[in-house]
Design a protein that fits this description.
Helices cover 5% and strands 38% of the residues. The protein contains 2 helices and 18 strands.
């Protein structure tokens, strides 16, 4: 193995292996870089001169090789650069990301509307006389969650049961009465013992809510929220604190 050849291969974003032989002639190059690990020499088909080359695979962390061409570290959000014979550049993305550079977050419904989030994962500060249950706080569900009290201490909480990336929130009002939340703030927590208020550029973000019963108001959440538990805190409402919710993102 030759350290100079290995470094050359490591700095080339498509190189995964190289052929090496000791220099017999100082004018001849003794490294052959290759983009495949399937290279084999057939002893019956090649001459003795070609057989003196030795084939080495490499396994290096290319993030340590910064270049002025900007060819390293081009995969975002923890993505890993991989070689593909048909594409100029390809990133292998972590589960919650997509795109040629892993720059986009998958934004799927997290399970309020379709029931993947179970009733016991939903908790609230209070409910109206025990009749308007928290599980009615699902997007497009008949009715809504309605609080017992009408004050700024009310909240609607979902426990995703694992760390989840939240990229969007949708809300609706109550189907059978003219009640809806006009604005709200959001808090989140990883363990449930300490909730952090969501901010943008250092200021508490107040989300615009609904102005009727059934229209869906959707917000993209940037920066994204990474948490296990999330709470919506109504700050203004019409008629009563009543709402239905869906969260979007990726677990």
């Amino acid at each position: 193995m030759d350290i100079f050849c290995e470094l050359q291969c490591a700095e080339h974003r498509f190189c995964v292996a190289y052929n090496y032989k000791k220099k017999a002639d100082e004018k001849k190059f003794n490294c052959q870089l290759t983009n495949t690990t399937e290279h084999k020499f057939d002893e019956h088909e090649v001459g003795k001169e070609e057989q003196v080359w030795t084939f080495y695979k490499i396994n290096v962390d290319r993030s340590q090789f910064a270049t002025c061409r900007g060819e390293m570290n081009e995969c975002h959000n923890g993505g890993i650069m991989i070689w593909d014979p048909e594409k100029e550049y390809l990133c292998q993305c972590l589960d919650c990301y997509e795109g040629s550079r892993c720059e986009n977050v998958l934004a799927k419904p997290l399970g309020m509307a379709n029931g993947i989030i179970s009733n016991n994962q939903i908790n609230v500060s209070s409910e109206w006389k025990g009749q308007v249950h928290p599980n009615r706080g699902r997007l497009n569900m008949t009715g809504a969650w309605s609080s017992d009290e009408k004050d700024l201490n009310q909240w609607f909480q979902v426990d995703f049961q694992r760390s989840t990336l939240v990229t969007g929130i949708s809300t609706q009002g109550r189907t059978n009465l003219n009640q809806f939340v006009k604005s709200y703030i959001v808090s989140f927590s990883q363990a449930g013992d300490n909730f952090q208020i969501y901010t943008q550029e250092g200021k508490i973000k107040r989300f615009k809510g609904n102005n009727d019963r059934n229209s869906i108001v959707h917000h993209i959440v940037i920066p994204h929220i990474s948490a296990r538990l999330i709470r919506i805190h109504p700050t203004a409402w019409y008629g009563h604190i009543s709402m239905r919710v869906e969260f979007y993102g990726c677990s």
